[in-house]
Amino acid sequence: MKNRIEEIRKERGLKQEELAEALSVSRQTISSLENGRYNPSISLAFKVSAYFGMQIEEIFIYEEESQ
Predict the structure, then answer these.
(1) Comparing C-alpha atoms, which of 27, 29, 34, 28 is closest to residue 10?
(2) Rounded Cα distance, 2 and 35, in Å
(3) Which of 4, 31, 40, 61 is deepest in the core (most CB within 10 A)?
(4) pTM of this prediction?
(5) For residue 53, what pLDDT band results from cuts at 50, 70 and 90?
(6) 51: helix, coil or strand?
(7) 61: Cβ contacts below 8 Å, ≥ 6 apart
(8) Residue whose C-alpha is closest to residue 46's, from 55, 38, 58
């Protein structure tokens, strides 16, 4: 799953640490999300979308894996 977290965070002038604190996660979690190494729980995805005031689909892009 791809996401636009880094793009949106930078547009709003936030540091990874600031976003992590606002979402009650570690900076490493934000880094892993941005680099695609970690897919968020549905709860965290909702927190991210609520924080940015956007729909989940505007932030997270589901790409079906090819078989």
Answers:
(1) 34
(2) 9
(3) 40
(4) 0.89
(5) very high
(6) helix
(7) 1, 2, 3, 4
(8) 55
Beta pairing, strands 2-3 & 60-61 = antiparallel
The C-alpha atoms of residue 45 and residue 67 are separated, in whole angstroms, by 26
Q: What percentage of residues in the chain have a pLDDT greater than 90?
A: 90
**Do you know the residue count of the chain?**
67
Residue 1 has pLDDT above 70, yes or no: yes
Distances (CA, A) of 6 to 2, 41, 65: 11, 18, 22
Find out whether 34 and 3 touch, Cβ atoms under 8 Å. Answer: yes
The amino acid sitting at 5 is I
Confidence at residue 67, expressed as pLDDT on a 0 to 100 scale: 60
Query: In this structure, are residues 30 and 20 in contact, taking their beta carbons and an 8 Å threshold?
Result: yes
